[in-house]
Design brief:
The chain has 12 helices and 13 strands. With 340 residues, it is of the alpha/beta class. Helix 8 packs antiparallel against helix 9 and helix 10 packs antiparallel against helix 11.
Length: 340
């Protein structure tokens, strides 16, 4: 069997309860040679035990921290174990399809791209509704002339059957970390992922850095994955989710982006980012979806905007104050299993 060109880095994204289904799908459909590193960032006992058992059974490397990790902390931990030409980051709520890894590697080999993303789908049934297919990612100026970050997703939330254009291999400005191949040369040149990006926009930071270094970002449509969030959150999920998308982590991320790229803290990207994160965080409010069904979408949107949203924001600020959570500590890492 030929030596693998890629190491899969399976990392937590926003919940724990999707881990087993996602990992089992990955193991079942990925037949080409690969190495596997799994990062367990503070999962509850039942998930930790499952991962430990699987690591011994399948012989992959498993690193465990008792604290919840930021996305880039988890990815950088995985990078310490990579010895192959490429690393492929896969979130723990993704369902890949057969041939997904080989297609990403082939694209990178044929194009020389430092970064390759798949065709991203979302929700079930799998492979029906696009999550995005690349997009724009750049530094520009807003309508008031303020230096801002621009991120636009192409074909976001569109049914693929209704898309007129052909989704072909192409260069793009933007991918997402749900699943992405990155050449290890990128990290040798640029250094590790920026851990001051605690919450969102870390994918944009990588794309900006790679393109600024004169290298390319590609999309490979014959590699397909589906991002599948859970229908309901467990208690452990909810605690993780609310910190992952907390205002403390999000504002620290905005501050870092503004500083790093010389952006105006009053520019439009700040408002867009805050709005998206707070809106996504309300996914954890299971009862809100029941309320929408009872009172209707229109009244529910008004309640969310004027009552539920402001209250939830205040509660999140109280639970996760910036002074305590805005600068996560370096984690203590335990090697649960080391691949031979």
């Amino acid at each position: 069997m030929p030596s693998p060109l890629a190491t899969i880095a399976f990392v937590p994204r926003e919940v724990f309860s999707t881990t087993q289904r996602s990992l089992e799908r990955l193991l079942a459909v990925t037949t080409e040679p690969y190495e596997l590193v799994v990062i367990d960032g503070g999962s509850p006992p039942e998930v930790a035990a499952y991962l430990a058992t699987q690591s011994r059974q399948h012989g992959f490397t498993l690193l465990r921290t008792d604290q919840i990790l930021t996305p880039n902390q988890a990815r950088n931990l995985a990078l310490t174990q990579v010895r192959t030409k490429y690393v492929v980051f896969v979130d723990n709520d993704v369902l890949p399809t057969a041939g997904w890894l080989e297609a990403l590697v082939t694209c990178a080999e044929e194009t020389g791209a430092w970064v390759v993303g798949p065709k991203y789908f979302e929700h079930e049934p799998e492979g029906v509704k696009l999550h995005m297919y690349g997009g724009e990612c750049r530094i520009d100026f807003d309508k008031r002339g303020r230096r801002t970050y621009v991120e636009r997703h192409h074909l976001a939330h569109k049914l693929e059957a209704e898309v007129a254009e052909s989704l072909e291999r192409r260069e793009t400005e933007l991918i997402e970390f749900h699943t992405v191949l990155v050449a290890m040369d990128a990290f040798r040149t640029l250094g590790p992922l920026d851990e001051k990006f605690l919450s969102n926009a870390e994918h944009g930071d990588l794309c900006l850095a790679v393109r600024a270094a004169g290298h390319t970002v590609y999309l490979e449509p014959t590699s397909e994955i589906t991002y599948v969030p859970p229908r309901e959150l467990t208690a452990a999920d909810r605690a993780y989710f609310n910190l992952r998308w907390s205002q403390a982590w999000q504002q620290a991320t905005l501050d870092r982006m503004n500083e790093k790229y010389g952006l105006d803290p009053r520019a439009v990207h700040n408002r867009i980012s805050r709005s998206w994160v707070s809106g996504h965080r309300r996914y954890a409010l299971d009862w809100m979806w029941k309320l929408k069904r009872k009172v209707g979408a229109g009244p529910a949107r008004k309640l969310e905007k004027w009552v539920i949203g402001p209250i939830e924001n205040r509660v999140n600020q109280w639970r996760y104050p910036r002074a305590k959570y805005g600068s996560p500590q370096a984690p203590t890492v335990r090697v649960v299993n080391q691949a031979a």
